[in-house]
From TrEMBL:
Keyword rRNA-binding (UniProt): no
Main location group: Golgi
PANTHER family linked to this entry: CGI-141-RELATED/LIPASE CONTAINING PROTEIN, VESICLE TRANSPORT PROTEIN GOT1B
Protein name: Golgi transport 1B
Length: 138
């Protein structure tokens, strides 16, 4: 069984990397969320940052990750995101997370409509997003 991606055909051995990447990314998001809930715990936020970036690299590959972050028009966003990661790792979690969240929104703002469209198709979450006060007029 082969897996088609935009760069060509990949064999089943690459599916394992995708699964590992999704797991790392999921754990990274969990640790980031849990670290924020626990009053910006430095260790949890640092682990979450490392897992998230590593998971992204496993899912789309190192070269595509590098190209994504270092496009000319995304340099400001990358600076805020990676600068925030560095500041969290240094030990100032609140300032680092503010910079990181700002950079994250700048980097991934093109993906948000796709994510919202996907979530609208999930049974319970889709119902909540389609409530009158939340949904936008289309």
């Amino acid at each position: 069984m082969e897996h088609k991606v935009s760069g060509g055909w990949r064999g089943p051995e690459y599916l394992q990397y995708d699964e590992i990447g999704m797991g790392l990314t999921g754990f990274g998001v969990f640790f980031l969320f849990f670290g924020m809930i626990l009053f910006f715990d430095k260790a949890l936020l640092a682990i979450g940052n490392v897992l998230f970036v590593a998971g992204l690299s496993f899912v789309i590959g190192l070269e595509r990750t590098f190209r994504f972050f270092f496009q000319k028009h995304k340099m400001k966003a990358t600076g805020f995101f990676l600068g925030g990661v560095l500041i969290v790792l240094i030990g100032w979690p609140l300032i680092g997370m503010i910079l990181e969240i700002y950079g994250f929104f700048l980097l991934f703002r093109g993906f948000f409509p796709v994510v919202v469209g996907f979530i609208r198709r999930v049974p319970v979450l889709g119902y909540l997003l389609n409530l009158p006060g939340i949904s936008s007029p289309t």
